[in-house]
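User: hey, got a sec? need Guanylate kinase-like domain-containing protein folded
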Amino acid sequence: SGIIRLHTIKQIIDRDKHALLDVTPNAVDRLNYAQWYPIVVFLNPDSKQGVKTMRTRLCPESRKSARKLYERAYKLRKNNHHLFTATINLNFMNDGWYGALKEAIQQQQNQLVWVSEGKADGTTSDDLDLHDDRLSYL
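Assistant: Yep! Here you go:
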């Protein structure tokens, strides 16, 4: 984690690609305020055991507690669900979530987004500070 520059995200968008970011709810608010309107997909774990099984299979070198990660996901869902443009329920028994993720992104990018003609008053920084990892899966 660290600081991500909006300019860097813009360069990725200009190449007709999606920037995949693990950001805090505050960073999502800042992106919305800057009128970037990110696609925010929440991967909803099915259980503590499901988190442990998936992380063992997909990220075996990880040392983070499955219980803590599950609790963090629960708090994130409870307190910030209004920021999510899509939610994908994870099932540790299969990798169907990947297809659902691609479908959710495709669906979101094909929807119209209302934007104002002018920028909101106030200044927005060109940085997204990602140092606060309390609400991150990674």
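Quick note: The chain has two domains: 1-37, 39-109. Let me know if you need anything else on Guanylate kinase-like domain-containing protein.
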